Amino acid sequence: MATQADVRRIAMSLPGVDEGSERFAFSVRNRDKAKGFIWVWMERVNPKEPRVANDGVLAVRVANVAQKDLIIASSPTKFFTEPHYNGFPAILVRLDKVDVADLEVLVLEAWRCVAPKELVEAGAPPAKPRARPRKAAKKTTKATKRPRGRSS
User: Fold this and answer.
1) Are 42 and 82 in contact (CB under 8 A)?
2) Contact, 8 vs 39, CB < 8 A?
3) Is there a domain that residue 131 lies in?
């Protein structure tokens, strides 16, 4: 189980990260603008009333909406979304369902999505490789060459 203290430790270890002053959130400056990559989920508890911070859930940036859909489909008990985030590349993460290793990957990848290229190249630790199944080697066969040109 991950905690907000784990999120803070991981996020603040990355170059150029600032912690929000009003609520639990982290950003990095890109072209003189703060770009958020992790923030506490503001849940709509009661319709027609302001959203309320849910400290057990984080909104985390991802590279694109396709990646968002893949992550949510991979483990819907850990990751989800709500209509407010439709079309936006961010997932909602239940902190009590993810471990610290998952969180490290999520935070680093979220930071990479918004950090300036120079900062990513200069100071980011390499992304942890994920285990991927190996593809079977293709057998090569000698193809017969066909003459070029029109056939009549």
Assistant:
1) no
2) no
3) no
Would you state the structure tokens that stand for residue 24, as one six-digit string?
């639990």
Which tokens hold the place of 79? 């990751």
Phi-psi domain of 74 (left: phi exceeds 0; alpha: psi -120 through 50; beta: other):
alpha
- What CATH number has the domain bearing residue 20? 3.90.1150.30
pLDDT tens for 49-102 read 999 999 999 999 999 999 999 999 999 999 999 999 999 999 999 999 999 999
Q: Count of CB atoms within 10 A of residue 37's CB?
A: 26
Phi/psi of residue 19, nearest 5 degrees: -95, 140
Tokens of 99: 């471990």
Are 124 and 112 within 8 A, CB to CB?
A: yes
Higher pLDDT, 127 or 64: 64
- Is the entire prediction scored with pTM above 0.85? no
Strands 52-61 and 79-80: unpaired
Number of structural domains (the chain) is 1
